[in-house]
Amino acid sequence: MAVNRIIQIFRLDSLYSFFRKDKCSILMFHRVVKDVRIAGIEISEESFKSLIDYLKEEFEIVSLNSISKSEKRCAILTFDDGYKDNYTFVYPYLTERNIPFTIYITTDFLDKKAILWWYLLKDLGKDELVKSIRNGEIEPEELFRENGVSPEQYVEETLNWEELKEMSRSSLVTIGGHTTSHPNLRLLESSGVEFEIGVSKQRLEEELEIPIEHFAYPYGGKSEADEVTYSITEKFGFKTAVTTVEDNVRDQQSIALPRIPISGNSSLGDIKVRLSGIFSLKNYLR
Ligand SMILES: [Zn+2]
């Protein structure tokens, strides 16, 4: 990526970090896999391992609950949706290294009612429809019906309740909510938003017998979560909630914390640049 190259050559990221003195980076992952199919939500095991080595050297990797206690520049690892590899790969790998992490769960995925339309689009070679689905112009269920594919085809991509329960008992793992069905919350009436957030929180608390105090907005950009959504999250008593707006943590409200997206196409060099927070500048250009 040309912009990244220019930033690296002129060390603009280091300069930016020096002046901004950002406290913490919340990294956003979804899956860690052997072979990357959807770069936007997957990173390879190899890249993940080198990133963790780098973070261990340069950052203090803390849990979401310790965000304000860290003295050093801190990093927080978060995984959205609840994919199988979070249990089969991430959990043992990070546990062995005593590294805390958070998983945000969409409860329908664990109830095997998952509509993982992004994998269907990939298989159909129709990635260009991603935006139309996120905007609510196409119903994901309709896409499955039209193409004669059962949503069950993708159920094995996600965790099951037993796996989540086991992880929830680890002091290194924080479980957060990520709605019931992963909708674009801005397309719903406030009663719908309350249902999606409240029912999934209650479900997780009953299944796991722990308080659920953290939340991630599905899709999480400015077009999918706004002040109204934030206030509903606050009403449900969440301590923190994360968006997908790209930035480091400074003094933002705790129910709209920005994150640094990690994608399969990024090299370690690209990720280092991102961790400086320099790409947050684009948030001000709109
Ligand atoms: Zn998600």
Bound molecules: zinc ion
Distance between the termini: 21 Å
CATH topology of the largest domain: TIM Barrel
The secondary-structure class comes to alpha/beta
The average pLDDT score comes to: 91
**N-to-C order of helices and strands:** HHEEEHEEHEHHHHHEHEHEEH
Radius of gyration: 18 Å
Shape: globular
Largest sheet: 8 strands, parallel
Show unreliable segments: none
Provide a count of the helices.
Answer: 12
Beta strand % = 15-25%
Question: How many domains in all?
Answer: 2
Helix content: 25-40%
Query: What is the CATH homology-level superfamily of the largest domain?
Result: Glycoside hydrolase/deacetylase
> So what's the CATH class of the largest domain?
Alpha Beta
Task: Examine the secondary-structure arrangement and name the CATH architecture of the largest domain.
Answer: Alpha-Beta Barrel
Number of strands: 10
Would you give an account of this structure?
This protein is an alpha/beta fold and 286 residues long. It folds into 2 domains: 2-114 and 158-284, Glycoside hydrolase/deacetylase (TIM Barrel), CATH 3.20.20; 116-156, no CATH class. The protein is built from 12 helices and 10 strands. The protein has helices spanning 2-9, 12-20, 45-58, 84-96, 107-110, 117-124, 130-134, 140-146, 161-168, 190-208, 227-235, 268-275; strands spanning 24-29, 31-33, 42-44, 60-61, 74-81, 101-105, 173-177, 214-216, 240-246, 257-261. Strands 1, 4, 5, 6, 7, 8, 9 and 10 form an 8-stranded parallel β-sheet that branches. It has a two-stranded parallel ribbon with strand order 2-3. Strand 5, helix 4 (84-96) and strand 6 form a beta-alpha-beta unit. Helix 10 (190-208) runs parallel beside helix 11. It is globular, with a radius of gyration of 18 Å. The relative contact order is 0.16. The protein binds zinc ion. Zinc ion (ZN) binds next to strand 5. Zinc ion is lined by residues 80-81, 178, 182, 218.
